[in-house]
């Protein structure tokens, strides 16, 4: 059944989640019907900072010409199209962020913006439903070169914004635009129509969500067509390499991810949605297999993916350089979207571990603590003397916007909708997936509401207090991350990498206390990750840490640091540092080197002397908030 009523007035809708599987399909878990209310803490701070950035997004879209393109296409202005061919998509991602942010805050100024820009978008739509300002203003034939034109990519982002607007604000105007566009696509592509598929996936998951909202079956059918057609060359322009477009192997047959990383993970997410809604177990098994292969051999310790700058692509297995890591912010966001869908589909908490780990360590580094500057690429090392050789180079530090501004509004919509990923529900239970101070409400045939109190991620203690419960046995399940060895629930040992479950008739005021031990952990990589052989990374709780230059002793260059793996690691919370972080302090060494004639010496010659030094590490997500200074996640051992 479709999940939305059709209010004409801006009431908060019943579902404020981006992904709402149709009731009765095989999805094991469902989002909470009314999202989750964050009451403070780490994510609330980050989401509040994002809230200050969303209005600035409008100014940046105006300056860059994205909104003007649509105004020109709608006849309200004159001029040439500016920006990349997918310029419209940045407007749509931003509109999606506006909608989720309105759902969270009820701020009427957001609704005013939403209405205004919706009208601009609606005016740019052609009578037959076609919508793409850049293609029209550049007088290109429609769908000529869909491998690069991004017309369906833009359409997908429009649909996602429209779904968000309908669910979070009750506004249906953008949904009308999306439905006309989807009807036009259904009449143009697929069996009996044009066989091509967009070079950049996203329309697949967007069409499925549009189907979930409206119940219009042909949206799902078209999404299924686009997933099935991939791997047969329909997404690849001319004689280009189909690998880049995830078009070399049919989705159902692929064993791995390859090519452009954002394309690959968006495709995985869309194929997961199609599998769930059509009950296609074979397709679900295929996307699970691909996700597992990615995690096994192509994911950074931070959760980031897509190691190659060239083609913004996945590299070969274990090709995970640190200083030249691309790890695009959008790829991490797409990975979270895929993992979240797999979590809903399967109930496997390993996917929630991926959501959490990637959010903290691969999405969040993409945005400044102020919420207003963004990284496009997220390397795990910045060398002393690094020079920026590209406008995306991390040596610039985070930037307010980019010529290719895919990442900033993607971060905006991700953070604005993040409360929907705190927890899930089943017919008779509530599963807490992410830990934050919050009130969570599930409908289990009666309200089951709990409040979480925690200082996570700095502290692993989570107190759960029942606020409402039906008079029968229901289950509260608390995710125990795989790293949380020795976890306890009310003093009883619970296994890491699973849910700690309590099933009973709860009474108001009942309390559960989960303790997730958070000692610092030294991590090493598979030997085949050559770039970090002989190095360790340090993690604590869900966070990966980094040594950044401003925290080190005078004269101890980050490039020269060594870690003593046997030295104790002390965690200290510093409320005044980087918005309040727990730092890790340990003992190591600094190489006192003199540059030789070359970087090489005979194997038998002694290593330059190493002097003892104190090391301080900060969470990786917080790096480059004091300028882009030298930084390393992986550090050689003594
Ligand atoms: O092609 C649209 C977006 O631009 C991609 O997702 C990013 O990787 C960037 O290339
Ligand atoms: Zn991006």
Show unreliable segments.
1-14
Beta strand count: 22
Structural class: alpha+beta
Radius of gyration: 24 Å
Bound molecules: beta-L-arabinofuranose, zinc ion
Question: Considering DSSP H and I runs of 4 or more, what fraction of the residues is helical?
Answer: 25-40%
The main β sheet shows up as:
10 strands, antiparallel
What shape does the CA trace take?
A: globular
Characterise this structure:
With 638 residues, this protein is α+β, with helices and mostly antiparallel strands. The protein has helices at residues 42-64, 66-73, 87-105, 108-124, 133-137, 146-149, 151-169, 173-188, 203-214, 217-229, 261-278, 281-297, 329-346, 349-363, 407-416; strands spanning 30-31, 36-38, 381-382, 423-426, 429-432, 438-443, 447-454, 461-468, 474-480, 488-489, 492-493, 498-504, 511-515, 521-523, 535-540, 543-548, 561-563, 570-574, 581-591, 610-619, 631-632, 635-636. A hairpin with a 2-residue loop joins β4 (423-426) and β5 (429-432). Bound molecules: beta-L-arabinofuranose and zinc ion (ZN). Beta-L-arabinofuranose binds at residues 86, 200, 262, 312, 328, 330, 404, 406.
